[in-house]
Amino acid sequence: MASSALRGIRLALGGLLRPKRRSGPPAGYRPRELILLLAPALALYLLFVLYPVVSGLYYGLTDWNGFTAQASFVGLRNFFSIPNDPLLIRAVGNTLIYTVLTVLLQCGLGLLLAVALNQKLRGRTALRAVVFSPFVLSTVVVGYLWTAILSPVSGTWNALAPVLGLGSTASFDLLGNPDTALLGCILITVWQYSGLSMVLYLAGLQGIPREVTEAARVDGAGAWSLFRSITFPLLGPATTVNVILTTVSSLREFDHIFILTGGGPGDASQVVGTVIFGVAFQANRYAYGAAVSTLLLIGMALIGVPLLTFLRRREVAM
Amino acid sequence: MVSRRVGALALLVSLVVVTAACGAAATSSPEVPAASSPAASSPAASAEAPTVLNVLSTKPEPQDVMAKWSQTYPNIQVKWENLGAVNVEQTLRTRFAGGGVGLDVVNAEAGYWPEFMSKGLFADITGESFLKNYTDETNASSTYDGKVYGISMFVHWEAVYYNKDLFDQYNLAPPTNWTEFMSVCKTLKSNGVAPLTFGAKDGWRSTLLTGLVYSDLLSKQPDWYTQVKEGKAKWTDPDSLAAIDKVQSLVEEGCIIQGETGLDYNSSYQAFYSGKAAMFPDGLWAIADLINPNKPSFQFGAFPMPADPGTQVRVPYTTGDHYGIAATSPNKDAGLKFLAFISQPDVATMLSSDFKSFSGVKGVDLAFDPLVEIVLPITQYPTDQMPYAYISSGVQTAMSSVWQKMLTGGITSADAAAALQAAQVTGQ
């Protein structure tokens, strides 16, 4: 089931880039039925995705405060203000750091866990469930859970650290220290989502034909060379899905940061998503927030599409 | 048979129309029937057309008050929606921006209430008789451009709560000025007790630190925040810089608990509650937590935020919990009845007790609980502007960041002042 889900995601991602090869319609092509089948999903997409995106672009060209009925057209003024916004510049940097580290750590850890839990181990299913379980928790729950654990005054880590021989870290303020707040958010995000990456990699591992690995073993391949030369290349599709999903969700990150640090202390962990929230809904500069959102969308496309192209090219056909 | 059914249906429709017409006539007066009168739930009330009145509040539904309401107005069903205390402003902005659908009576906090009034989001209730139940000062806080748009159910003061047991242990008296306050901090610090916590992680809590360090300036110029808003004063003025320097002093002297920037309101309160921090600046509304259900095991007290020696002490104050009727509400008459109802002293007393808050209604005893006596002296001081209510949310957001940077040593007083002034220009 996971394998078919992975295949579905791959098809969806791959369809964006696949070149047109045929000139005529396939056999049994019935456009009317096709349109009828597509219509509900298309209507929802237009209403809840495309319309907000287009209206966001429109509001980015106004001075709307998100509140009153009046909005004046100001052209590209909001967009020209963006390079002069030091908070946003810092947030862009943080977002890129957040994205790179989250992708590397989450996908790396997911791969390790998948390989480990693909072995014949006792309690393997239970372990998989344990690793996957943070993913089913609400981010709000995860946020408050870790805030309670890491609170330098009353966190459970205060009591646990000395028992584990880590007493010097008991009062370390991971989320309240400007030097470590962003890293703390990254680690907690990775903790929550590495189970998802593991499941996607597991699906990929289980899709690798046994005869391929057995043939390699017969040829004398050891565990490491088998992984490096056979398993990892054949996990290309799973890597594509993992990296793309993690990249996109990291670039538009909001919830972990908002709950864990609020972007602080002193803006040290601000990412673009939290800045948009702040300017649009706290400073009532909705139009500016919409302009930043539009640029974020463009930025995500500029990063996501080439990345997808690159990853798809390095996939090995089975 | 069919024609008989049609006839019966027509008769029923006629009756409904006639009854509705009577109801419409009956709703023209917002006066509240006397609660004790048998006629209160009366034929006039029962003849009203059934109405659902949406009440959007930041507090949970007060069961006893709503039971009394149902007896008084059986045909007006109140649908109480509790938004809680988090991000209420954003929620309300979104609801109003969406056309105000389903909004009848709306509860707004002091911080954004003036702006909401100025945008025409609330119905004019000037001249309603229940406004006489409030002081002129309280009504003034709900007045914009000569028109009254709501009522203020509760009023708020800010002070510094302190752990009396710890103060007694180190022979400390509540400080009466800033010099004494710093001396108290140093003594506590030298004895291994964190003097102060306020919950710097939560944006709005930054205003508590502002209230503390700007106490002297506000005591001298009680409307200083309004002056800043109107451009008559700046965050970069020398008096303001002196206030910001006090934050620097607090940091340098180690007066603020270690890890403060990682503490939200709850964690901060927990630090005070558990005796890890000796002082906790907050609104008198915190008495609700301090008396029940989280009453600390130690004796506690409260003192006004200290000004410099020789300056008359004032206390940050604001009206709050404003209730108004959305301008787009189709149920304005029912909304007026609701405002009149909760403005009655006996109902206001119930609400004060339910929500453990200080009523804004004249004649209602502030001491809704015996333990409230501890903080009542604070209410006797002359007042100045409470930062939370008079500083825009945009500036508060910047202020939170600025104070956090100062607490972590990442910014000077001058840079902090400049950042606040920049936020004032762009974010108000």
Descriptive account of the structure:
Chain A is an all-alpha fold. Chain A is built from 14 helices and no strands. The longest helix of chain A has 31 residues. Chain A is flat, with a radius of gyration of 23 Å. In chain B, helix 12 packs across helix 19 and helix 18 runs antiparallel to helix 19. In chain B, strands 1, 2, 3, 6, 7, 8, 9, 10, 11 and 12 form a 10-stranded mixed sheet that branches. By secondary structure, chain B is α/β, with parallel strands linked by helices. The chains are: A mainly alpha (318), B alpha/beta (428).
Label this structure with key terms.
heterodimer, A: 318 residues, mainly alpha, 14 helices, B: 428 residues, alpha/beta, 10-stranded mixed sheet, two-stranded antiparallel sheet, 19 helices, 43% helix
**Count of DSSP-assigned helices of chain B:** 19
Q: Mind summarizing the main beta sheet of chain B? A: 10 strands, mixed
**Global Rg of chain B:** 25 Å
Distance between the termini of chain B: 70 Å
Please specify the SSE layout and strand pairing.
The complex is a heterodimer of chains A (318) and B (428).
Chain A: H1 2-15, H2 31-59, H3 77-81, H4 86-116, H5 124-136, H6 139-150, H7 156-163, H8 181-206, H9 210-218, H10 223-234, H11 236-251, H12 255-260, H13 272-282, H14 286-313
Helix pairs in contact in A: 1-8, 1-11, 2-14, 4-8, 4-11, 5-8, 8-11, 11-14, 13-14
Chain B: H1 2-26, H2 43-46, E1 51-57, H3 63-72, E2 76-82, H4 88-97, E3 105-108, H5 113-118, H6 136-140, E4 143-144, E5 147-148, E6 151-163, H7 164-169, H8 178-190, E7 194-196, H9 206-213, H10 215-220, H11 224-229, H12 238-252, H13 265-273, E8 277-283, H14 287-291, E9 300-303, E10 315-325, H15 332-342, H16 345-355, E11 358-359, E12 383-385, H17 387-390, H18 393-407, H19 413-427
Parallel strand pairs in B: 1-2, 1-3, 7-8, 10-12
Antiparallel strand pairs in B: 3-10, 4-5, 6-8, 6-9, 6-10, 6-11
Helix pairs in contact in B: 12-19, 18-19
